[in-house]
Design goal:
By secondary structure, the protein is an alpha+beta fold. The chain folds into 2 domains: 205 residues, Cytochrome Bc1 Complex, Chain A, domain 1 (2-Layer Sandwich), CATH 3.30.830.10; 192 residues, Cytochrome Bc1 Complex, Chain A, domain 1 (2-Layer Sandwich). The chain is built from 15 helices and 13 strands. The strands form 3 sheets. Strands 3-4-8-5-7-6 form a 6-stranded mixed sheet, sandwiched between helices. It has a 5-stranded mixed sheet with strand order 9-13-10-12-11, sandwiched between helices.
Length: 432
Amino acid sequence: MKMTDGRLELGIEESVLDNGLKVLTVERHTAPVVSVWAWYRVGSRNERLGITGASHWVEHMVFKGGREFGKGEIFKQVAKHGGVNNGFTHYDFTAYFETLPAEAHDLGLRIEADRMASALFDPAEVESERTVIISEREGAENHPGYLLSEEVNATAFREHPYRWSVLGYKEDLRTMTREDLYGYYRAFYAPNNAILAVAGDFERGRLLDRVRALYGGIPRGPELSPVGVREPEQRTERRVTLRRSGGAALVYVAHRIPDILHDDVYPLLMAGTILSGAGGMGMRGGVGGRTSRLHVALVRRELASNAYAQCGASKDPHLFHAGATVREGVEPERVEAALLGELERLGKEPPTAQEMEKARTQVHASFDYAWDSVTGIGGVVGSAEAVQGYGRLLTLLGRIDAVTAADVQRVAAQYFRESNRTIGRFVPTRAS
């Protein structure tokens, strides 16, 4: 992977069909494998009260049968060819992929074309899946970390749809109709709201001919209004405490940060890396962390069993997360004080030259690992295009390398303020 004048040479090629479908391709002939990804610019941020959780429920429904692939056929056909596939929902997007032997990659293209144009939403399947969706929600509620994160988001955001989880509110899951879900699907699952990202061992000209044949006849969808909700300024610290039966106590701190296109995101990414190691990209996990500031200050000193920080930059202004799992016998107040102390210290004194170099190396490694497989490439390219435009990938490492210690100190002082944070605690209680 070469960098010229601060820009990576990633081999991403772009085409746009007449119906608005954006096709991004990355040819890689190192192994006879192809990964086909379909990304839709729709997630929980596009929902409203009454249909929270619709994006996730639609994700489930488009595996339930279309014109070409019936119920259960997608997983069966992919497995038959020795491939893997899945789908997932995020705040800002929904995505699906099939990674297959090169000679079978047409299957992935056909699956995604059928999913885009012809999902059935059979009424009986909608009702059956309602039970599954509610069960998934109730299963998540068994995990204190999920519940605490949900409460903190609901406290940090008062207007923006980021305040509810991707799983939605149970009350909405009980009352949404087949018409609600199908209408949502028809509005957002259209070629002009989609990205097809294909990486691996194929010949681009032939692939594009096949894409035009499969997708070119799918009509454009409606022109969608942008999400116009803007979160009011936060003026004071907010707190929430969750008490229920559970295991270890948890401390969670969230600071408001700007959207992913803001220049401050690069020093905030470096701040998160210095605090707890580089976050994962694509389908790969993070890098480093055991010598990071939070690990040293909380885990090595036996205040917490784990600690983390992450820059959660998203399409709209979101949150910088930091948290810890409290060790048994330790007061949560001590962990909170240590956690806040490290966040505040970063704003008072710049990181050392050694910390900056280590953080840059970790970010580079995280990117390289994500780019090491065709599945990871499709994941990185598609998610970047869905949220910020894939062109930002070309300058990501160059922008990271340009971040100075003073930049990190400045954003920490600016965003890690008391008046800009929401603190959540989970306090376990004994079951009655």
